Amino acid sequence: MLAISCEEMKAMDFYAIEKIGIPSIVLMENAALRVIDNIDLDRMNSITLICGVGNNGGDGLAIARHLIINRKNVDLFIVGNLDKGTKDFNINLNILKNMELKFIHITGEKELEILKKSLVKNDLTIDSIFGIGLTRDVEDIYKDVISLINHYSNNILSVDIPSGLDGDTGEILGISVKSNKTITFHLIKKGLLESKEYTGEIIVEPIGIPEKVTKVILERME
């Protein structure tokens, strides 16, 4: 299995978007649909979904929309500064607002307690907080959120990479989500191979990046 670095994956994303012309929101939608494909919708009826405000969180918001379309009960939480959401995160958040889906913005103890109750009662937790761009230790309220996810979830699925894991080395950046299953996109990241205790089952899903892109970037970065 070909394993790539986070830098290589970012370069492939950039090339697919800027040189091939695939809109980033299309890649995000494809990623969300691949995650839905890997959820047992017959068994999982209630879901706690926790998003950051980057593109990993944008994936999570798109996943939330598809779960709702599939008539699932979704408790949506967002952690992070909403004023700093990425473009595609904001597009998906606006869609959910237009669908009149309520979400809880985690800012302190009150919201953390609501999150805890949601994790305990729901069938599945989806971790969509941090992606492969995380390079520093998880701190503050993010640390509290991940701790609750690990302690109170019945089943955990991580989007692309468990939040808190270094995608290159597999190092735990202070704290990491400990998943039962990780759905990663396009190609496996090197750090995932070093951290089975945290990734659980790893499934690699295509999101529409052409093979040409992979070849060009790997040749360029040799």
Automatic annotation (TrEMBL):
It holds the Pfam family YjeF_N. One of its GO terms (molecular function) is NAD(P)HX epimerase activity. Binds 1 potassium ion per subunit. K(+) binds at N56, D127, S163. Its EC number is 5.1.99.6. It comes from Tissierella carlieri. Catalyzes the epimerization of the S- and R-forms of NAD(P)HX, a damaged form of NAD(P)H that is a result of enzymatic or heat-dependent hydration. This is a prerequisite for the S-specific NAD(P)H-hydrate dehydratase to allow the repair of both epimers of NAD(P)HX. NCBIfam families: yjeF_nterm. Its cofactor is K(+). Keywords: Isomerase, Metal-binding, NAD, NADP, Nucleotide-binding, Potassium. Residues 9-215 form the YjeF N-terminal domain. This is NAD(P)H-hydrate epimerase. Belongs to the NnrE/AIBP family. The gene is nnrE. (6S)-NADPHX binds at N55, N56, G57, G58, D59, G131, I132, G133, L134, T135, R136, D137, Y142, D160. HAMAP family: NADHX_epimerase.
